[in-house]
Amino acid sequence: MSSSTANSFPRPTAFVTLPQAAEYLGLSANTLYVWRHRRQGPPSFLMGRRVMYRITALDAWVADQEKADSRSNPALNPLNRRPERRSSQRHQQ
């Protein structure tokens, strides 16, 4: 591949702005603003005056959300656990 051909392909960007991150995640920009204010959601940082997100961090955050959700993670599903036996002793009053 020649250097002129290699340069004609768009280079993927490593960072996105808050509105771009919201679109990437399928959320509203306002949701990300609120989460950032509450120190929730995906990690972000300031680049100059702009709030930025690293795409790899967005992907990692989504993966963490999937692992933490019992519907996506069979290990967390209470229906996959053996039922616990109740103790035969009752609390006396």
Give structural notes.
With 93 residues, this protein is of the alpha+beta class. It has a domain at 12-72: Winged helix-like DNA-binding domain superfamily/Winged helix DNA-binding domain (Arc Repressor Mutant, subunit A, Orthogonal Bundle), CATH 1.10.10.10. Helix content is 40%, strand content 12%. The chain has helices at residues 3-8, 18-25, 29-37, 55-68, and strands at residues 15-17, 45-47, 50-54. A three-stranded antiparallel β-sheet has the order 1-3-2. The termini are far apart. The mean pLDDT is 82.
Main attributes of the structure:
3 strands; three-stranded antiparallel beta sheet; Arc Repressor Mutant, subunit A; elongated; 93 residues; alpha+beta; single chain
Set down the secondary structure blueprint.
Layout: H1 3-8, E1 15-17, H2 18-25, H3 29-37, E2 45-47, E3 50-54, H4 55-68
Antiparallel strand pairs: 1-3, 2-3
Helix pairs in contact: 2-3
Listing every helix as H and every strand as E from the N terminus to the C terminus, the arrangement reads: HEHHEEH
What's the CATH class label of the domain at 12-72? Mainly Alpha
Give the CA-based shape. Answer: elongated
Mean pLDDT figure = 82
